[in-house]
Write a structure and sequence with these properties.
Strand order of the largest sheet: 3-2-1-4-8-7-6-5
Oligomer: single chain
Order of helices and strands: HEEEHEHEEHEEH
Distance between the termini: 50 Å
Helix content: 25-40%
Strand content: 15-25%
Shape: globular
Largest sheet: 8 strands, mixed
Radius of gyration: 16 Å
Number of helices: 5
Structural class: alpha+beta
Number of strands: 8
Bound molecules: zinc ion
Length: 205
């Protein structure tokens, strides 16, 4: 666990510097054990650039904290849905500028398609730029059990998706390992910025 905690602390600093988790936004989890399911996770309300290893929580498969020093994030239920549905080893949630803008603008379409870019090959299992990645967009919701239910349906309906956007809010992505999840954040944030910059040229000034 010390290694996993330190890994999350470094990720917080790195993602904060890149502008993906400003303020206390975003949250990260890494699966510590599968039986019983236990996640090492960032707590509610923590600044990701200034995390300490002792801030991190262990939560069980129901989202309950195993140590009570800090409160789990309200979004813990979303992490658990993804871990279960995708057999993920890590789940990363970011609030970048481009994911916020594009998730709002494409909300009515239910998702955002990205196709034709070499960078798509950084997504697990994708071997050609001809791939079309569909990123589903869910309406944002403060009712976490309800949002977790909608996320479960969305993950089931889009078995090939590598990420999900919450409208006007941010992105969830994941990987079998923490490194794979980090790579997905980097690739997807890059692609969202590419799409956003291109689309924005035709938006009214
Ligand atoms: Zn969030």
């Amino acid at each position: 666990v010390p290694g996993l905690r330190q890994h999350l602390v470094s990720l917080g600093q790195e993602f904060y510097r890149r502008g993906w988790v400003m303020g206390t936004s975003g949250n990260f989890s890494i699966v510590q054990s599968n039986r019983p399911l236990t996640l090492v996770m960032t707590p509610s309300g923590a600044h990701k650039g200034r995390l300490k290893a002792s801030d991190l929580l262990l939560v069980d498969g129901q989202g309950r904290p195993k140590n009570r020093a800090r409160k789990p994030s309200a979004e813990t239920l979303l992490h658990l849905e993804i871990v279960r549905d995708r057999s993920a080893g890590a789940v990363l949630h970011t609030h970048s500028v481009w994911s916020t803008i594009l998730s709002e603008r494409h909300r009515d379409a239910g998702g955002l398609a990205i196709a034709g870019y070499e960078m798509l090959k950084g997504l697990e299992g994708v071997t050609t730029h001809e791939h079309r990645e569909w990123i589903p967009i869910l309406a944002n919701d403060q009712d976490m059990p309800r949002l977790a239910g909608r996320l479960r349906e969305t993950l089931a309906a889009h078995a090939a998706a590598h990420a999900v956007l919450l409208s006007g809010h941010g992105m969830y992505t994941w990987g079998r390992t923490a490194d794979e999840a980090v790579r997905h954040v980097e690739i997807l944030e890059f692609l969202l910025e590419v799409i956003g910059r291109q689309e924005s040229r035709s938006w009214p000034q």
